[in-house]
Amino acid sequence: MNAPIASTTAASSADVAIIGAGPAGGTAAVTLRSRGLSVTLVDEAPLPGGQVWRALPQTLKSGAADRSPDRIDGDKLRGALANSDVDWRGDRRVWSVMRDPQGFRIDALGPSGTETIRARSLIVASGTHERTVPFPGWTLPGVMGLAAATILLKSQHVLPGQRVVVAGAGPLLAAVAAGILKAGGEVAAVIDQNGALDWLGASGAMLSRPALAIRGAGWVRRIVGARTPVYRRHCVVAAQGETDLASITIAPVGANGAPRPEGRKDLTADSLVIGNGLVPGTEITRLLRAEHRFDRDLGGWCPVLDGGGRTTIEGLYVAGDGGGVLGVDAARAGGRHVGETVADDARAVANRSERRPTSRRRPRFGAAMAHLARLRPAHVASIPAETVICRCEDVTRAEIDRAIDEGADEVNQIKHFTRCGMGPCQGRFCGDIVAELLALRQAGADDETTIDRARARIGSWTARVPIRPVPLDSLIGDFDYADIPVPPPAPL
Amino acid sequence: MSESLRFSGGTSHEVTVHIDGEPMRCRLGETVASALIANRVRLLRHSPRDRRPRGAFCMMGVCQECVAWVDGAWRQTCQTSVVDGMAVELDRTP
Fold first, then answer.
1. Residue B18 bridge partners (DSSP)
2. Of A345, A369, A393, which residue sits at a domain end?
3. A136 and A123, same structural domain?
4. Is the same domain home to A137 and A216?
5. End of a domain among A352, A369, A386?
6. Does residue A492 lie in a domain region?
7. SS3 of A455, please?
């Protein structure tokens, strides 16, 4: 009798599987194909490009061609992939990744059911998700992420609201505010957690990439030209509304990143787009039990990688922001570099020769931007008790503090005590904040060095299958009661 | 579609999607979540535990806040493209 799930699953194999078709994964695929290896490239989106190079659907294109650098780079990647014979699998949701004797086994759910992909090597290029430091009212409709607003603007040509406040930290702030203004929308204010001095501190690194610095200057020029109020060294401390966002409260922040009690101000807005940096998506590398390390500047927990993107597990590689947030240019360069490494390693295995060690410098521009958007412990410490931390399960800070009082001393225990992180987002939005809250309590301090040590000790959620929610019936397929294998009864 | 939050593109690819039985005009290529935002429908559901109002949050298939009952199945509306005649039920209790 066949295994029930395999009977309805399409199976295939390749030299290399790549999960994520953004700048890193897409570039790695093209590189590997040019080195003669067979490649299967899997992504959730219908077209390659990832978040930053996301395609605009054909039917939404207007007369004027979009000549933004992201569109041009994305179209170039999509063209290169279309002209290659990379096995492209869009619209696929990867829900399981396992090691198997030949390398790796990936299970995905696609438009025509479940699929199993086997590959000798695996490159994880799954990118990041956005972090928001919670505040009362952040769960109201009308509040969304900066990355969410980018998707609306770039790939849907829709404004997030009528009168938008753009808030948080890092380069996405200016990009989103400028994008809204360019589209003819209204930006009520820009709320930047950083001040002019913080940005000045990053200016040396910005000069290392003049083209990107000029692009940033163009965003700033548009914001200044529209006379949009910019509140530097401020953050959002509350959002108000009944069923929908109506107004927000902002406050000046101190040198440690925490809001100050004085100088608060209310702003009317029907839309708030907010983000406090990006977090590497490490669920696959954690699931496979690769080693990870905590690096606040790179977004938090990152897989341990050598210069060639090799993890601590044979045959498993990481490219792009999923290995630490360094931005699109680093992701593209990393995709090429990791692709070359995988091809070299495959040849070394075939020739039974030594694998070449590889090294790479951390790009200054991306590192400076990620540093501006890093999580500030004192900001997390300031979250009021009644604030929801886990959106899925409505777990408040007070409930998390109580669990710590009752003896929870690592994040998985907080999960067991409170259900925090147990909902359908699988802890992706609350994980970093919960760990920071626990670190603050255990360390009894809020400086980054002390908190980082505590975070390294506390760890992160245990990753489990399914790594993305999938409907159970589509995994079961046409499995029936009669398919259950019944072993012969033991002799009496 | 003059009062919507859409900012470009023609109307040559219009389709109709039914939101809780009410027709809503959308552009082919839009996801259900962005079509709802464009038409200023933002309250999509209530959280299961405390029944707090929720809307689309991450738009990239991670947060699950935009999940709705679409043509007889739970779908993330930010990952679901509009199709003519699609029926969407918001705030359905599982």
1. B23, B87
2. A369
3. no
4. yes
5. A369
6. no
7. helix
CB contact under 8 A, A129 and B58: yes
Of A46, A148, A242, the CB nearest to B60: A148
- CATH number assigned to the domain covering B14-89: 3.10.20.440
- Whether residues B52 and A243 touch (CB distance < 8 A) is answered with no
- Could you tell me the pTM of the whole model? 0.93
CA neighbor of A323 nearest in space, from A483, A95, A105, A124 = A124
Do residues A367 and A205 lie in contact, with contact meaning Cβ atoms separated by under 8 Å? Answer: yes
Residue B10: count of CB within 10 angstroms of its CB: 12
Residue-level pLDDT at A360: 65
What is the pLDDT averaged over residues A80-98? 96
Judged by DSSP in three states, A464 sits in coil
ipTM, 2 dp: 0.96
The answer to the question of residue A416 being in a domain is yes
Give the model's confidence band at A365: pLDDT under 50 very low, under 70 low, under 90 confident, else very high.
confident
Interface of A with B in 121-160 (CB under 8 A): 129-130, 139-145, 147-149, 151-152, 156-160
Tokens 């009021």 locate to A384
Q: How far apart are CA A235 and CA A194, in angstroms?
A: 9
Residue where the block lists tokens 């040019």: A34
Q: In a 3-state reduction of DSSP, which class is residue A98?
A: strand
Q: Are residues A262 and A348 in the same domain?
A: no
Q: CA A479, CA A463: separation in Å to the nearest integer?
A: 27
pLDDT score, position B66? 97
Q: Are residues A158 and A231 in the same domain?
A: yes
